[in-house]
Amino acid sequence: MQIELNAMTRERLEQSLAGKPGQFKMFYDTEDCGCNGMLVIRVVSEPSPTDIVFQTEPFTFLCDRQQELLFDDVMRLEAEAGYPAYKLTSDSTLFGSNIRVQDARS
User: Which Pfam families match (predicted)?
Assistant: First the structure.
C-alpha cells in the first residue's frame, strides 16, 4: 500500500506530530458507532503486535493486518482547506471524508 500526500497534507500531518515522535495508523474505529466503522488516523508511539508498516516516507503509516484488505494499493490523503479534516481516496473509492487525526500517544 502507498499513500500519496500533497504539500498541505504533509504540513498538517507534521503539525499533528507536534515535534514529538509518532506514527500514523489508518484505523476503522467500530466502537460505539453502530456502523461498519469510521476511518480515523491515530498518532501512535509504536505499532501494536498486529500492525504492519506499509509506508515509511515522508511519515510512517501503519494499519492492523486484519484491516489491510479494506484499503487499496495506492491512495491519496488530502487535507481539507480551512477545516481540520482529511479525505482519503483512490482511483476507485472514497474511503472517507471528514477524517480526523486522534493523538493516541501515551
Answer: Fe-S_biosyn (PF01521)
Give the domain extent around 38. Answer: 2-103
Q: Which CATH number goes with the domain that contains 88? A: 2.60.300.12
Concatenated DSSP letters of 39-95: EEEEEESS--TTEEEEE-SSS-EEEETTTGGGS-SEEEEEEPTTSS-EEEE-SS-EE
Q: What is the pLDDT of residues 54-99, one digit of tens each?
A: 999 999 999 999 999 989 999 999 999 889 999 999 999 999 999 9
Among 22, 19, 29, smallest CA distance to 70 is for 29
CA distance 25 to 100: 12
pTM of the model: 0.91
| Strand partners for 12 | none
Indicate the number of domains in the chain: 1
E strand or H helix at 33, and its extent? Answer: none
Which set of grid coordinates corresponds to residue 93? Answer: 473509492
